[in-house]
UniProtKB/TrEMBL annotation:
Name of the protein in question: DYW domain-containing protein
Family note: Belongs to the PPR family. PCMP-H subfamily.
Tree of life domain: Eukaryota
InterPro entries, sorted: DYW_dom (IPR032867), E_motif (IPR046848), PPR_At4g14850-like_plant (IPR046960), PPR_rpt (IPR002885), TPR-like_helical_dom_sf (IPR011990)
Span of domain DYW: 966-1058
Annotated GO MF terms: mRNA binding; zinc ion binding
Amino acid sequence: MFLRSVSSSYILLLQTVPRHKVNTRYVLRTLCEIRRKPPVSGFRTSCAAVSVSLYEEEPFHEEETDSVESRGIRPNHQTFTWLLEGCLKRNGSLDEGRKLHGQILKLGFDNNASLSGKLLDFYLFKGDLDGALKVFDEMPERTVFTWNKMIKELAFRNLSGKALGLVSRMVNENVTLDEGTFAGILEACRVGNVAFDIVEQIHARMICQGLGNSTVVCNPLIDLCSRNGFVDLARKVFDGLRTKDHSSWVAMISGLSKNECEEDAIRLFCDMYILGIMPTPYALSSVLSACKKIQSFQTGEQLHGLVLKLGFASDTYVCNALVSLYFHLGNLISAEHIFSNMSYRDAVTYNTLINGLSQCGYGQKAIELFKRMKLDGLGPDCNTLVSLVIACSADESLSGGQQLHAYTTKLGFASDEKIEGALLNLYAKCSDIETALDYFLETEVENVVLWNVMLVAYGLLDDLRNSFRIFRQMQMEEIVPNQYTYPSILKTCIRLGDLELGEQIHCQIVKTSFQLNAYVCSVLIDMYSKLGKLDTARDILVRFAGKDVVSWTTMIAGYTQYNFNDKALATFRQMLDIGIRSDEVGFTNAISACAGLQSLKEGQQIHAQSCVSGFSFDLPLQNALVTLYSRCGKVEEAYLAFEQTEAGDNIAWNALVSGFQQSGNNEEALRVFARMNREGINSNNFTFGSAVKAASETANMKQGKQVHAVITKTGYDSETEVCNALISMYAKCGSISDAKKQFLEAASTRNEVSWNAIINAYSKHGFGSEALDLFDQMIRSNVRPNHVTFVGVLSACSHIGLVEKGIEYFESMNTKYGLAPKPEHYVCVVDMLTRAGLLTRAKEFIEEMHIEPDALVWRTLLSACVVHKNLEIGEFAARHLVELEPEDSATYVLLSNLYAVCKKWDARDQTRQKMKEKGVKKEPGQSWIEVRNKIHPFYVGDQNHPLTDEIHEYFRDLTKRASEIGYVQDCFSLLNEAQQEAKDPAIFIHSEKLAISYGLLSLPSTMPVNVMKNLRVCSDCHDWIKFVSKVSNREIIVRDAYRFHHFEGGACSCKDYW
């Protein structure tokens, strides 16, 4: 009875005192004093009077309760409940709680559920997990709330395994899981990187419990799935929610953005806004982050407008995302404007701007902003310092980096892994390899990032030996590599072309299962592509790349590099077909492949796709467009694409010059080159090479020499590629002496291309013996011949009638030099045999070829049949030609001529009728000559030149003089007698005769006459020019579609064998 009254008095006393002021020691002491006095009606007043002493905070002592019990007062479970609450409220020590726990056990109150709950709260509050688990295990009964409390604590401590174990116990003990349980276990899974199958089991249990539409559990499930890459499951859960709150939308939008589904994230945000759900700052920041990743500048600007409209312009979180977006898109002005207008800037704001400035190469601005950050009272963290070190690395500011190194050490951040990596990278990029190595040895070498940086450091110095030594040391010290380790050394193998070592590293990659990693896979594809093993690269792409866009575009780039343009485009189409959205690299290389194939229509389609995808302003892509349109002969489009590029970009200028040259717009190419010089644009090897080729194609010796002068002035005359182009240019312009001089001057820089150029030059100019002598010199100089070399050698043999010697050279390609003959070599042999009149042997040679004869082989045979008037073999060759190229006009023209020379007039007329029916037109013959810096074109029987009368009169005079010394005109062989009588003789004057007449009439007597013709010179014209060179006492050089003819003194360099 007494104990009951004391306990009741104790409770009454506590009710009069604020709980956060309870002092357990004085409570017990006051109760003892009350025990000595009889109860009075003013008990409440007495309690209130003594309650002042309870406000004091003094620690609890076990002897206090012993003293109470010695006075005959026995506390009950409620007493200890209030005592524990007192410990919790005043943050009592863990030791006090343990003593109370001991008293509870001693008095047998441990089986009280309420008191056990308070003990559990105390231990959890004090962080004693072992004590909490012990109390939990010994509790007489556990409510679902208690289970949830423990699961939440274990999740907080990242003990996902134990949390899952508790859930299993709940299931085994038939405890019904509620929303709190699932929320706790999902949190445990989120921090514990739990396997996907476990997440699926949790999801299934949620559905069984009827919680499939609960936002309390579904929202964290969406977030969990998204964080672990299970975005499909996240979307399934999201779509299954009948009612979605703000958190549902935000979790799903954020998840899509983080899992490379940026466009889906943006669309979902639009859906949310259309439904009238007000976006939160976090939702806006997530969708802005998505825009940043896909470089969707237009969408980002629209979202910025929405931010202003909704009044979030002052929200720090949203502004940070906007600053990051604009920096990533290169819009520095907008980023700085947002920053300057922010009412409050936190450390993230400054870090975002500093990092953006560093990434954009504005290192000094980043440092100035850091100083402002300190003035605003914000101290730097690791991210700040890392960005500043990166800024110094980008500027290669070693001194600035060293100062930052000292500063990080002073702040105590020097041991941070990120900063260690950034500092080591700084020394590596600044080529201070000794300091880098010393710093590396001083750091915690277990950090794999530092090992990777050292691999890159030696790689930048092209020091493969030390790079591989570092790699071997990693293996010896059992440093576990990551996805950046192997690519670091593979990139060095790429730069140095060491395929063998790259293949060894590939074996290590397979052993460690890193071939499944997208980044490693893309670098492997890059290595094999750049080092020529495209089949291996393709095999890796098909087996391991999946939908990694970098791997696919790397493969496309590899095909383009080796001019497998058709395969590049096929791979590009396949990539799009399987749903991979191309990046700027893919578009650039696909357009380059179209340029290589001169596939204008497909190139324009890809151009349109790149614009839709937002890559219109990408500089490499713009340069590729310049190449595409210039190579396809689209002059206006090429200039338009050129104007879109950055002014002064050498690649764009080179693309324009090279493209025009390759498409036959050689004069346009030379105009661009001249404009480059006027505007002070620096030319390089590629520029000069293209300009020289353009001059050679127009046979414009004067412009060629002007380009040569610029080359000499700029010091590029010692470059092998330029020297080789000059050799070819002088040869094509008809000056074999200048070509030889250039070849001799380049003695120290010669390569196989140099030898090929001079051999082919002599061969085309009809100096076959000299060409073969040069080939012998090439072999003696230990320069190995290639396929191009043998084209020149075989052509030389053909032009001088060395049939058996030519066959010997042809057979030596395979037996002596290991070169499989290509179609062009077979054409040379056929030409060699037919020039010698060995048509039957040529036919047998074609039939025994190891490859399928192409149209050029049959055309060569047919052309020879016209010369030798062999109707049977000619018709045989013509049938094959018509099968291969039914629309080619040359076939019908040659066949018609064959019938004419064989006097088969009906067959000739039938052939011409077929040409009319098929719409086939003969290419008109044209010759041109340069006189006083102007090109003068002529056609057969031309009457359009301003000096037509003078030219025709002078032609007649030349012909008369030539006839006096033996020239006999033969231009009617293709006409029957009736046609010869009906035709005006003037219309049979071939274009080269008119061009030569004009040249002799207009040029100084000391200058040779250089004429170019688009077709082969006929026998009559050849004879006429020989006689004219004698009567005029002038050197005449004619370049036709096959070779050069040097006429002088009544003889030709071809010795009438062409």
